[in-house]
Amino acid sequence: MTDATLLWSTWQALLQSFAWAFTRPGHRRFAEWVTALALNVEEHTITQSTLAIERPADWKAMETFAEYGAWRADSVTRSLARLVEKAPGRLWHGYHVSAVDDTKVHRSGPHVWGTCTFHEYTARCPNRATTVLAHNWVALGAVLENPGRPAWFLPLSGRLYFRKSQLPRLSPTSGRTEPFRTKCELAVDLIREQAGTLGGRHLAAFDGGYALRTRDPAPGVARGRLTPHRVPDPPAARRPVVCPAARAASLESGVGPPAAAAPPGWLVDEALARGDRLRLRPPAEGPLEGDHLRVAGLGA
Hints:
This protein is α+β, with helices and mostly antiparallel strands. The protein is 32% helix and 18% strand. It has three domains: 3-68, no CATH class; 73-210, no CATH class; 228-294, no CATH class. The chain contains eight helices and eight strands.
């Protein structure tokens, strides 16, 4: 068996895992579309996808499937999560690690459903618009260990976010609109969906944009640090957490000799109580956006 034959057989077996979520014609279009997305190195449009698989005559059928096709989205997500579950590095010290973030996909036109206006934080060039019309997706992906290199991120599921003032209608003839849900609520749904599908222990990683307010910690979870049973790397629990702001404050005070190494999270707790700033990126990267973030004080 040649490498090409083996690769194609493996790919067909993977696609067959999703057959139960579609009708037979629908699964055929799904397999065609997903294969085109995997092969397409250009922008993931319908036109580029049909060209990638050398089937430009299927353009209309693929567009119709993408626009009007119906399938069980939760079933597709469960099948994908179970396939990724078998991948090397899926478990980190017994935990399923997932990352959540939101991303914008620029879309415009009177017939594009679900677009909203958003501030484009990456528009640093004066020639780029700071407000764009786009779909804003809250996406969750599995984080897979890649020893000695940055971890792999495999997207698993997503939810479309709408601004409260720009909720789209459920249908052109309906007066009802989509219900408003915050990005945090959508992120929680995605995390719970993975936990319900796979079971076991789960850890979720997300950036500071989802930390909107201080809340009382859940039982067994201390604010400002990880309790020992929540630390993925047990040896790391014995190393002190380095907080540059707290260390600089203690050295500048000049009171007494440097203190002994504190338990994990102790310096972070002190810095949090004082409202210090924590450096989140190395100085070598320069003053990038978000280089310093204010740590919420207790009771804030």
